[in-house]
Specification:
With 328 residues, this protein is of the alpha/beta class. The chain contains eleven helices and nine strands. The protein has one domain: Alpha-Beta Barrel (TIM Barrel). The strands form three sheets. Strands 4-5-7-6 form a four-stranded mixed sheet, with helices on both faces. Helix 2 packs parallel to helix 10 and helix 8 runs parallel beside helix 10. The longest helix has 23 residues.
Length: 328
């Protein structure tokens, strides 16, 4: 029998997630100096450029997805597929780990290093963990939108899509006191109407674009809409789908990526994006890897850590921000 779209999608996602719970390795987590555009580290040299606020040579922006608990009854985890006629008793606990252990551990890491991150939040997950969502915002992190339910936007009608975003906004604002202005679609797959709907609802930016290592602007119905690019390469959900990946290897990949972007940042605007997910990036070995990387990055002068809303506002004000093909 041919597989349904949901089954095919589940198989792909399962491949991405399969190795996450098995990943191991050693490294140490580190974080940055507070404040958008603030340079980190004081070694010899200025690390100064005219491409970022405060003359930073490289900006690093970190995502921390807040979605576990909203995954639904048939969500994929790092386990073999199970016929829907049977009860899956273990996968829900894998997601539970994201909120019980992962997010609190990551929040402590960001505090340790003074880094402020962007958290794209599924509305239902916020409803299930209101205290944790409020704590995240209280610590100075950005609450951004990720839909009301953990449902692919690309299969929605325009009305369904708009309703999901409206409910997501209302939920996050009611619980955290913050109205989201940034958006991330399910697996980054939008519909032809997504940017228009987001623009109508007052959003300033989205991250569902892998085309550049710097922010850009897309014209939507003749008006500018910011793009703060996401990442697959510096992304725990992608890298730890490989069971051979270790925390130590992930830390080295982050350092290697950083080295090239930092060198390029002396001559052009460069942005390094890193993505973590509650139940994956919050695992001890991965947190250790992030810690080591952040300590490494902070040794260089002119490194700044910025939330994505701050990047978007700044990019929209610059005359030299790259323009993409307009959305009509």
């Amino acid at each position: 029998m041919a597989k349904t779209d949901d089954e095919q999608r589940g198989g792909t996602r399962r491949q991405f997630l399969a190795g996450a719970a098995l990943a191991a390795g050693a490294v140490t987590l580190a974080t940055a100096q507070p404040g958008a555009g603030q340079a980190a580290g004081e070694p010899a040299g200025t690390g100064s450029s005219g491409f970022w606020p405060g003359g930073a040579q490289l900006v690093i922006s970190i995502s921390m997805q807040f979605e576990a608990g909203a995954q639904g009854a048939n969500a994929d985890g790092p386990f073999p597929p199970l016929d829907s006629k049977y009860t899956d008793s273990i996968t829900p606990t894998w997601f539970d780990y994201g909120m019980k252990e992962g997010v609190p551990r990551l929040l402590n890491l960001w505090d340790k290093h003074g880094v402020k991150v962007t958290s794209h939040m599924v509305g239902k997950a916020v409803e299930l963990q209101p205290d944790l969502a409020r704590d995240l915002v209280k610590r100075g992190h950005e609450a951004a939108a990720h839909g009301q339910t953990w449902t692919p936007q690309y299969s929605m009608t325009p009305d369904e899509e708009r309703r999901s975003y409206e409910e997501n906004i209302a939920t996050v604002e009611r619980i955290t006191g913050v109205r989201p202005i940034g958006f991330n679609a399910f697996w980054m797959r939008q519909t032809p109407k997504t940017l228009e709907i987001l623009q109508d609802l007052g959003f300033l930016y989205h991250i569902d674009d892998l085309g550049r290592d710097e922010p850009s602007i897309t014209e939507v119905r003749g008006r500018p809409f910011a793009v703060v690019p996401y990442t697959l390469r510096n992304n725990d959900i992608g890298r730890f789908s490989n069971t051979a990946m270790t925390g130590a290897a992930f830390a080295q990949e982050l350092k290697d990526d950083f080295d090239i972007l930092y060198a390029e940042g002396a001559k052009r605007r460069r942005l390094m994006s890193i993505s973590t997910h509650d139940r994956i990036g919050g695992q001890p070995a991965i947190v250790k890897a992030l810690d080591e990387f952040l300590s490494y990055a902070k040794l260089k002068p002119g490194v700044a850590f910025m939330r994505k809303d701050d990047i978007a506002r700044w990019a929209l004000q610059q005359t030299d921000t790259p323009r993409n093909a307009p959305r009509t």
